[in-house]
Design goal:
It is a single chain. The protein starts with 6 loop residues before the first strand and ends in a 20-residue tail after the last helix. It has ten helices and 19 strands. The strands form four sheets. The protein has an eight-stranded mixed β-sheet, sandwiched between helices. A six-stranded mixed β-sheet has the order 8-2-1-12-19-18. A hairpin with a 2-residue loop joins strand 10 and strand 11. It is an alpha/beta fold. The longest helix has 16 residues. Bound molecules: flavin-adenine dinucleotide. Flavin-adenine dinucleotide binds next to helix 1, strand 2, helix 2, strand 13 and strand 17.
Length: about 375
Amino acid sequence: MTSPPDVAIIGAGIVGCALASFLAEAGASVLLVERDAVAAGASGRNSGIVQHPMDPVLLSLFTETVAHYRDLAAHGFELPAEPQGLLLVAEEEQALARELATIRSGYPELAAEPLAPGEPARLEPALAPDLPGVRLHTGYAVPPAGATAAFAARALAAGARLRIGATAALAPGGLAVGGEHVPAGAVVVAAGPWTSELIDPTGRWRPIAPRWGVNVEVRLAEPPRHAFEEVGIDEVVAQAGDAPPLFSLVTAGGASSLGSTFLPAQPDAAALAPVLHAHGARFVPALADTPIASVRACARPLSSDGRPLLGRAPGHDGVYVASGHGPWGISLGPASARVVADLVLGREPALSRAFDPARFGSIA
Ligand SMILES: Cc1cc2nc3c(=O)[nH]c(=O)nc-3n(C[C@H](O)[C@H](O)[C@H](O)COP(=O)(O)OP(=O)(O)OC[C@H]3O[C@@H](n4cnc5c(N)ncnc54)[C@H](O)[C@@H]3O)c2cc1C
C-alpha cells in the first residue's frame, strides 16, 4: 500500500466486490479488505438463483442486477440468456392457491401459471407424481460463487487492491487492520451479517442479524431444468426462532443445490444435512438414492424489515453501509452496490428512503 485509498471496503462478498468494481472503474483508488477469502460467506455458499424478489420496493434492484450480470462475461460469468423458470411446489394445494393469488395480483410480469396435481411431474419428471405447482417466469440458475468471483476479477482489472486474510474495524479517518491504521477518504461496510457489529460495537444498533442456511450439494442422474422452491419463504424468514427447513433445488452445471434452513444461530451442518435430504426426497424422490456430495453452511444478512441498508452509516462521518439483503443478495447485491458507489462518488442518486440505514435509529 503506497498511498491511502479514496475508498476502503470491508467484505469481499457480492456487494463488496461489485462496489470495488464500480468505484475503481469510476477512477477511485479502492482497497477491499476481506478476513477470509473472496466469496467466503453467503456469496459463495448460496443456492445460486437470480430471481424476482416479490417485493415492489426491491424490483428495480433486481432488474438492474440482471443488467449488471450481462456485463460480466469478460470476467468469467455468464448469465443464462433466459430464466429457466421457477416451479413453486407445496404438499397442500391451499398454500399454493394463496401464493398464486398474491403473485397474480402483485406481479403479472411473472406470468404465474397454476399446475394441477401431476402437471409439475409431467413438466419435470424428477418431481413426485402428485404434487401441484405454480410456474413462474423468473429464475436464472448460476454457480453460487460465480458472480462474486467475476466482480473480484473485474475490480482487480480496474486497479482495486485486495487485501485477503485481514480483519478490519472502523477507526477514525479509516480502518484498523490487524493493529495497523489505514487512512481512507471513505469507508463502506459490506460485511454481510457482521455489518451491524462493525458499525456499532456496543451492540445497541442491530438492524442486521444472521439467518443461517445449510445447503446440500447433490448430482442427480437426471437433473431438472427448472428451479424448485417450496412455498412459504416469507413466513419462514419472518420467524424469529428456529424455523422448519424449506425445500429448494437449483441446478447449474449438473450440480444441484438442495436447501435450506433459516436459523438464528450457527447450526451443526453435518447433522442437518440428512434432515434436508429426507425433506427434499418428499418432493424429488430420486434424492433418496442420490448421495450427498458436499454440505455448506453460511449466514444470510437479514435486516429487520427484509430490505437492504444502503447509505450513510448513522453515527459516523464518511462511513457507508451496503448490506442486509437476506435471502436475495445474489439477486439484488450488484445494483445495491451501484447505488452506494454513486453516493460515495458524490453523484447523489435518488436514494430510496426505504433503504436508508437511519430508519433503524441513530447511534449515540
Ligand atoms: C443457504 C443460502 C442460500 C441463498 N440462496 C440465495 C439465492 O439463491 N439467491 C439470492 O439472491 N440470494 C441467496 N442467498 C442470499 C445471499 O447469498 C446473500 O444475501 C449475499 O450473498 C450477501 O452478500 P454480502 O456481500 O452482503 O455478504 P457476505 O457474502 O456475507 O460477505 C461479507 C464478507 O465480509 C467479510 N467480513 C465480515 N467481517 C469482516 C471484517 N471485520 N473484516 C474483513 N472482512 C469481513 C466476510 O468474511 C464475508 O466474506 C442465500 C443465502 C444462503 C445462506
